[in-house]
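Training component of the fellowship. As part of building independent skills, the fellow (R.M.) carried out the full modelling exercise for a liganded target. The chosen ligand was adenosine-5'-monophosphate-propyl ester. The inputs are recorded below so that the supervisory panel can assess the work.
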Amino acid sequence: MSANVYPVSEEIAKGALIDKAKYDAMYKQSVEDPEGFWGEHGKRIDWIKPYTKVKNVSYDPHNLYIKWYEDGTLNVAANCLDRHLATRGDQTAIIFEGDDPSVSEHITYKDLHERVCRFANALKSMGVNKGDRVVIYLPMIPAAAVSMLACARIGAIHSIVFGGFSPEALAGRVEDCGAKVVITSDEGLRGGRGVALKRNADEALSHPGIKTVEKLVVVKHTGKDIPWNDARDVWYQDVCDAASPDCPPTEINAEDPLFVLYTSGSTGKPKGVLHTSGGYLVYASMTHQYVFDYHDGDIYWCTADVGWVTGHSYIVYGPLANGATTLMFEGVPSYPDASRFWQVCEKHKVNIFYTAPTAIRALMREGADWVDKADLSSLRILGSVGEPINPEAWEWYHEHVGKRKCPIVDTWWQTETGGILISPLPGATDLKPGSASVPFFGIEPALLDHEGKELEGATDGNLVIKYSWPGQMRTVYGDHERFIQTYFSAFPGVYTTGDGARRDEDGYYWITGRVDDVINVSGHRMGTAEVESALVAHPKVAEAAVVGVPHDIKGQGIYAYVTLNADEEPTEELRAELVKWVRKEIGPIASPDYLQWSPGLPKTRSGKIMRRILRKIAANEYDQLGDTSTLADPGVVDDLIDNRQNR
Ligand code: PRX
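Fellow's submitted model of the complex:
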């Protein structure tokens, strides 16, 4: 833990929406009278039919439901577009910055509205109705935001699959949600190289399990020649040109689904996290405004991809609901060189910049000269998300990017939470490098011991959230039982986050990482079980165990222990083949950093793999293995230590 404390800057506090006194008063009201608080703040968005009920939640595992504003109706896209037309129709809604630094585009609210209406009509003409699922597999280009909002406009449920996922991973998600339409592009572009999205989509859709997809909409992006299926494929540009620009927003119930986003858990295949419309939008827009101290006219840039929840809530829905100018960046921080982020900040005069610790660590390694080259005087607020930020990276970010003037909001949240739950507010919270600090309005975190007893004061424990908030996920798509099992069964009566945390004497929270078998690689969440099942799907592999290992840039790397079938030879070629296999099965982000041959795995007598031991060996902490006497064959441990890869 870092000892430094940075008090709220007077300069920032002066112009901030929330200062210390206001935070205290609003937080108090939010937890003492949640109905009153959320009843009042729900009005920040436009309702077609106003709600009369605010909250209706039961965490009883036998009858679990979560409803907010349940009798209200609205349209999410109209909140992000139509309601701004009169006052800011000519203001830029989206600044698109291409992978190629010479490419950028400003899209006004009026223009975005028209694009969304046209594509919404095009989707309707393909037979997409309210409640139908549409999978979006696109690069970070404006058509991604247009597709999301077009779905929202007609009440279709979108499910974005990150463009870095493999055909296999895409197929699994398309099949699970039963999509009617898939949207992709000829290619993506990252760091000057093409990514074969259409080819991947073709391969995914040829999967025998996929029976629901009627159309594949293709955005022409790089112009690359691609195979074409006349019966199924249509060009995005053609269908938009043919469609009417007049598309009245469909009236949607607050509790109708807005999107499904797949995320990794500790067991089984990824689960479809389902978010609904009203509460999600209230929460995403409110957190966007207060956490980033967003003021009208600010240029706001979140560097995430829309394939992750951060892109949903803090590139598209939150900022657009607030009438912001949001920047969408297609490229990578290192292309054409390590000054790209800072060049983009200078070029577009970015005021609020939100990125991930892994990017900061990678850029820090390249040296501060790359930062110093750019004029960063427009920056006012910095943000961090996705994993714990180590104090060294925090200090570097604060000094070199923020010039010691910009507060850093270290925002802790999850795909499941819909929006930020723990974070400083720029004008209200003293900063401690490495701590996500204090809860947002309406959020009551608690730390529990293994028996579920709530711990008081400064302590470590399992982080849970006691009561519901409007942005909370409502279910796992198609598997409500799994929702209950995953989040409400270990500790009944509260939402279990799966993270561990420490609370200090000032009540600040320090997230210590996952307490389950989920790892966090460059801010990307990965189930070790998913990588294991990819490995054992290889015909030469008998068994595999995967653990996270500390990694300087990625935060955590992937360490795989592999047992081959009895007649297979462990060779360097096979090692490379298995790494490639995992990339193909899941995607490049799941590539094992280390792959060790392990003739045996440490197991208890009942056959359970002892991952604690595997984690220690991977991390080179094999002198602290603890008790190994319960192992069926303690001898395997010596072999694993002798042959470890991370030396
Ligand atoms: O372990 C926490 C970590 O990322 C997990 C959630 O991952 P995902 O659903 O992919 O969402 C990422 C973007 C919100 C959490 O359970 N995490 C996220 N933000 C932080 C964090 N850990 C520490 N500090 C953070 N600021």
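The panel noted the following from the submitted structure. Residues 522-643 form a domain with the GMP Synthetase; Chain A, domain 3 fold (CATH 3.30.300.30). The mean pLDDT is 96.
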